[in-house]
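Continuing the series of single-chain predictions for the mutant panel. This is the parent chain; the variants come on the following pages.
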Amino acid sequence: MLLRHARRSLLVLLAALLALTLPMSQGQAAATGFADTDGTTYEPAVTALSLNDITQGCSDDAYCPSDLLRRDQLATFLVRALELEPSETVTFSDLTENSHASQIETLADAGVVRGCTPTEYCPATAITRGQLASMIDAALDLPATEERFFLDGGTTHGPAIERLAAAGITAGCGTRATHFCTNAPITRGQSAIFLARALGYVPTVTPVTLAEREVQQAEIDRLAEQRRLEEEARRKAEEEAAAKAAAETAAADRLRIWEDLARCESGGNWSINTGNGYYGGLQFNLSSWKWVGGSGYPHHATKTEQIERAEILLSRQGWGAWPACSTKLSYR
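Parent structure:
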């Protein structure tokens, strides 16, 4: 059960994070569901927060769950929520044209926020998952845990992340079972899930230890490698089939060339011998036949061999070896 002061702190902080600077329209005030979260993992959390007047959408029917939370926006939200008095202090040099400059300086003067360097605030930088985890942890004052849940918590936010995991508020980022994605920017949708779980509006998740996560990730990696190999085999089979089909098409086209030439030379009779000194479908004379490696008479050879010998002759003499028919067929 959350302590009352912790619950109030969390509400102030994260309600500010998830609200927008523009006032709600009448339609937004009544809305409890959003078209862009319907059917998503964000829907239960966003709906619960909306019903409890903790968050609102970015328009009448949209929540914009993928939008990132920026450092300058957070400053404005927090100043309004904490009702801080404006400060005249100028600490950061990169806020000259930023509409949130006054609020940022006010928070810095109150010791609530720090810059990304001693003289810069980095206003456009998105708030990270690790930073938000630390904020929630500070608000809830969660008990310490010796159990490890993630590999990438780091030294700054790691302890807070592990406490959130032990409390069932986070299940990781989904990139890898063993990772929280500490340095990744946090979105409105992810923030809503964290908050709804922390406040008990949606069920928490069952904590999964790092040892269990490593087993899960090993199985995920095994299945991914299996899919990769299957995809590689499928792609290779498709490439081989395509190459075979292309080769068969080329061979068929080549065969038609020689068959057309044979019809012109010999009427397509591959065993013809008219006694004129030329033999077979492509009308070899004996000297040409022997020159390309043939033995015996051309008309005694198979159609396949005659074509193979003709290819050799073509490479040596060109289509001029069949001057009349190659011209007639426009082969040259």
